[in-house]
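User: Sequence recovery, please. Input:
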């Protein structure tokens, strides 16, 4: 929790202590846009089971909330390099059945990351008054800050210290009359590496469906 409070405080300091620098002219590409993002996140796992002792499968979808600071840096007309620092929790539910005894159960995991998105955002011209569309493509690198493995959990005993995902998304940008912008979109993040370390012989990749809501200053 201390990490969450620290990140939230950092975002607020950047946005409110130096508001006049939130948009800085960089020439023909336009302005750098800084924003505060708050997003519901639906997470689920893809599991490849090689355990000789257990039948193991995905147990369901978890719902979490992500937030953080985003920055869109222009490098041409309507082209942006979009990055940031996002607090991102991911959940995982795993069903298992012992092949010998028939004993079954579900293990639930919570893993907390700091995510650095590395994407290209293509923004359209206005499709309606003050409204434009955008498409987003790239990768995201997540650095683990905490998880709840251990205790009596044995399917996954440890998660890898980082995760990497393919990012695809799109949405709309609405320019407010007083100079700010609201971004609303949907993003799919497909896990590319095995997140499970130690425990049963499985490969686990985490996928996310993210509903993006961003207020740009």
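Assistant: Recovered sequence (217 residues):
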């Amino acid at each position: 929790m201390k990490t969450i409070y620290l990140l939230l405080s950092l975002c607020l300091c950047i946005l409110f202590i130096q508001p006049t620098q939130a948009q800085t002219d960089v020439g023909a590409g336009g302005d750098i846009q800084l924003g505060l993002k708050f997003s519901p996140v639906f997470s689920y796992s893809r599991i490849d089971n090689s355990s000789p002792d257990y039948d193991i499968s995905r147990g369901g979808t978890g719902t979490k909330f992500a937030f953080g600071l985003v920055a869109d840096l222009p490098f041409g007309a309507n082209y942006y390099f979009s990055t940031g620092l996002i607090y991102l929790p991911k959940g995982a539910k795993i069903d298992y059945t012992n092949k010998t005894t028939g004993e079954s159960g579900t293990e639930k995991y919570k893993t907390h990351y700091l995510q650095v998105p590395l994407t290209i955002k293509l923004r359209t011209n206005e499709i309606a008054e003050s409204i434009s569309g955008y498409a987003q493509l790239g990768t995201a690198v997540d650095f683990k800050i905490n998880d709840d493995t251990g205790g009596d959990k044995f399917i996954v005993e440890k998660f890898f210290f980082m995760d990497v995902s393919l990012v695809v998304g799109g949405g709309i940008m609405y320019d407010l009359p007083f100079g700010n912008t609201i971004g609303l979109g949907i993003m799919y993040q497909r896990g590319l590496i095995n997140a499970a370390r130690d425990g049963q012989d499985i490969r686990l990749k985490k996928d996310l469906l993210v509903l993006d809501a961003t207020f740009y200053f």
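The chain has a mean pLDDT of 86.
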